[in-house]
Specification:
About 20% of the residues lie in helices and about 40% in strands. By secondary structure, it is α+β, with helices and mostly antiparallel strands.
Length: about 180
């Protein structure tokens, strides 16, 4: 893999936000030429594939400004500094859905857009949900509605592009293969 490595010559910090950092790296290419790479640095995230006792998938609908529309997604959220992914997963499940669990298994992790971002998403699965007695306060700027849908309905919504993100598409594929 080292044969394709690009050596960083210089880094110019462009933006340091609440969620992402943007930088432009000057690099030496494997053939000795130089180039620029625009990079997004992200702390990472989690996503939770959660099944109810009725075998329905738990989704949240929220408006995504970058898309200028609402979509249905599996519960997910950003890692906080120093927080273990499994802790983030349980926290996000509670904040976004009103459910909790004592048992989650790590399914996989993947980079969302490796061409320009280092965001790594950890995907967890649980089918051992318990409804919380009291709602857990989520982020003050996050507005979500919870849905519980069977796999077949979720697949229909994906065909209609109401479900239209990679982590949720992965979750549906995982669940479909799990049933086979």
């Amino acid at each position: 893999m080292k044969k394709f490595e690009e050596k960083t010559i210089a880094t110019e910090k462009i933006f340091n936000g609440k969620v992402i950092k943007l930088q432009v790296d000057s690099v030496t290419l494997p053939d000795g030429n130089t180039s620029k790479r625009e990079l997004i640095k992200h702390p990472g995230a989690v996503a939770i594939i959660a099944l109810t006792d009725e075998n329905n998938i738990v989704f949240v609908e929220q408006y995504r400004k970058a898309l200028e529309k609402s979509i249905l997604e599996i519960p997910a959220g950003k890692l906080e500094e120093g927080e273990a992914p499994e802790v983030t997963a349980k926290r996000e499940l509670e904040e976004e859905t009103g459910y909790t669990t004592e048992h989650m298994e790590m399914v996989t992790s993947f980079y969302t857009s490796p061409g320009f971002a280092d965001e790594l998403v950890y995907v967890y699965f649980t089918d051992q949900l318990q409804r919380l007695d009291d709602a857990v306060a989520g982020d003050e700027d996050e507005f979500v509605e919870v849905y519980e849908l069977p796999l077949e309905e979720a697949e229909r919504l994906m065909a209609e592009q109401r479900i239209h993100d990679a982590k949720t598409a992965y979750a549906l594929l995982y669940l479909k293969n799990r049933r086979v």
